[in-house]
Every structure is written in structure tokens, then in C-alpha cells.
Amino acid sequence: MSAASAAFDVRGRGFARRAPLSLAWDWIDGRILQPAACRLALADCAGLRLAGAVAADGDWPPADRAAADGYAVAAADTLGAGSYNPVPLMAAVPVSAGEPMPPGCDAVIPFEAVQADGLLPEAVDAVAPGCGVERRGAWMRAGGPLLPAGRRLRPADLGLLAAAGHRTLPVLPAPRVRILLAGGPRDGAPEQLGAMLAALAVRDGGRVESLEALPADRAALALAYARPGADLILSAGRTGCGPDDVAPPALADAGSLDLHGIAMRPGGSAGLGLAAGEEGSVPVLLLPGEPMAALAAYELLAGRAVRLCAGRPAGLPHATADAVTARKLVSEIGCLDLHRVRLDGDGRIEPVGSPGWPGLAAAARADGFVLVPAESEGVPDGAAVTMYRFD
């Protein structure tokens, strides 16, 4: 049976079988393509990844310079100086950190190590050659590697690149993510989903191309899937098996529905496929309309696609912590469960609701989540687990 036929077969009947999460990951890893590299102004590159290595255009610093405020001196002129033996400095030049060293000077003596009450400043401490001096080329040499390809650019990187003379950079642009909310108003879900999914897509390196609420109309959805302008489409809502769950057949109409129904809780009605358009096939990820299920499906499926498309590592972006359960985490064999958990007063974790509970209130009270594998019947109390932290 084709994927498109399977989409219609489950409507009104429920899923006879769900695909393992590993199969969905393989689908994502094999079909997500990074947008072509482009050259952008330095100010527009924060958070993006370098498409190629960047070499230094020149030495940095370009000349010996003061590393601290003080007097630039010849170190030999301070020999023997001490608090009981001030030594007059005939050629001391006041300098600020970052200023080039004057000719004939090879050290900077701090202001507090100099008496400047008389006609000549006097050193009350000796300095060695190179003290307080940043040597030419200390941080980079002309032609040497400055930043490697694939580096995610931080603010300090941009400052360094600007200092080195770079004005534009070859980068992987943020993928254009189209977010479609299918089904119209239902308990405020579109508003919750739009705000949440947009923030998540930006977190993972995407740029929201559009955020649209659409009726539960198969033809309208199919047209939105096929419209050009996006590198990735997230469609939330109407992904289940009921007669009004039009997203799966709409995706089949627009191209192909390759997987529908994933062995995970919550979020098991998620699906994946391709929309055929003028710019080629675009991956589409179908997310449930229930907000907590959409959050889980995003974290475990759609987020992986956004990160790969942005040139980032595919794995979950959350910090992890080793923890011990204070209560049992209940699960069923055959389905990966995402358990929302919080830390108790003793630093142990306890569940905040079950994977099947709807709504984002429990997620807002949780400190993170634990993944219970599909082959497990649950995690007993007192067991060691890995918690993925929301913060």
C-alpha cells in the first residue's frame, strides 16, 4: 500500500501500526538539505555557521602594543628600582592599553609603580622586557587560520573578525521555515502553537518565513504546502485519524506522505513527507494540534530537521543532567515516552503528569524531560536517568 493510500486508510480507524522514532530520524537525516552558502555583512552573521574557514588578513595585533595602562619604557632603564631606590625614567611615555609601543620601548610599567611628583617620573619597581606588552601577531599571523568552517558565530567572533578587517563572511543562511496552523480556532490552540513553534524554530537556527492559520480545508493546505519560498514546512493540527484530519491527505496531494504515525507519546500522530513545488521538493513535518503533543513532536522530530537545515548538530540542544527518580516513570513497551519532570527538594526528579496528559501547564511547571525508550516498561523509583533541561 502506498503512503498516500495509507493516509486515507487510517482516517476514522486509527493507526494499525506506528513507525519507530529511529525510522523518522533516518527519513529526516536523509532528506534535509542545507541552503546554499551566501556572503552576508558581518552584522547579519550572529548565530549563523561559517560556510568556509576564515584566514587572517594580517598579523593581529599589527604591531607591538600596550596590554595595560602605564608608562612605556625600556626595561633596562628600570633595573635596580625599588621603593627605597627610585630610578628616574628619562624616556617614559604614558600609554593606554591598545596603543602601539613607542620606538625604543619594550615594556609597560604600571602607573602605580611610578612616582610622578618631580620633574621626571621615577620607577619604584623593575620590569622585565615584554612586561605589559602584547606582541605583534600574538593572536594571529597573516594567512593563518582564524575561524574554522562550521563554527557557529558568537558576538566575540564578530568583534575579532571586524578587528581583523573582515566586512562580509561566507555563511550558511538561516533556513526559511513556514509554519501552518491547520484547523481554525480550537481552545486557543493556534495562538499557543504559533508563539511556541516560532520561538522553537528560531532557537534551532531557523527564520520564520510565514506564520499562517488556515481552515481545516484539504485543498487550501495542499496549496500552502506547495507554495514556493520555504526550505522547511511545519504544519500543526489536523494530523490524526478523524474525518476532519485533513493534513495527511493534503500532504499526499501536494507531493508524498512518507510516514504517518510515530511510536512516541505524546505526539504520535505526527507525519513526514515532501511537498513538490517550483523550487523542488520541500520537507514537511506534520505536528499534532494539541499543544503538548506539538511540543514533543517538535523537540523529537521537527527540531532535528530545523537544526540540520541550519547546519547545526542534529541532537537535542538541551543541557543534560544526571538525576535519580523519586517516583516511578510509567511507560508502555513499543512507544518512546517523553516524561515531563521536575526536581524535588532533595534534587531527585518526579513526573509532572503523564506523557498522555494534554496542555502546556505541566510543561511550564517542569524543569525538563526524560525519554523512556520504546523497549522499556518504565523507570523504577531510585533509578539513574538523564534529564534534558528546559533552561
Please tell me how large the radius of gyration is: 30 Å
Q: Considering DSSP H and I runs of 4 or more, what fraction of the residues is helical?
A: 10-25%
What is the distance, rounded to the nearest whole angstrom, between the alpha carbons of the first and last residues?
44 Å
Q: What's the pLDDT, averaged over the residues? A: 90
Major sheet attributes: 6 strands, mixed
Q: Compute the number of helices.
A: 8
Query: Uncertain runs with pLDDT below 50, 5 residues or more?
Result: 1-8
Total strand segments? 27
Structural class: alpha+beta
Shape: elongated
Task: State which percent range the strand residues make up.
Answer: 25-35%
Side by side, the strands of the main sheet go 15-14-16-20-19-17
Describe this structure in words.
The chain is an alpha+beta fold and 391 residues long. The chain has eight helices and 27 strands. The protein has helices at 3-10, 21-31, 155-163, 189-203, 218-226, 247-254, 291-309, 361-365, and strands spanning 38-41, 49-50, 54-55, 65-66, 70-73, 87-88, 93-95, 107-109, 114-115, 122-123, 133-134, 145-147, 168-172, 176-182, 207-214, 232-236, 255-260, 264-265, 271-277, 280-287, 320-324, 329-330, 336-343, 349-351, 368-372, 378-379, 384-389. The strands form eight sheets. The chain has a six-stranded mixed beta sheet, sandwiched between helices. Strands 18, 21, 23, 24, 25 and 27 form a six-stranded mixed beta sheet that branches. It has a three-stranded antiparallel beta sheet with strand order 1-13-2, with no helix packed on it. Residues 1-8 have low confidence and may be disordered.
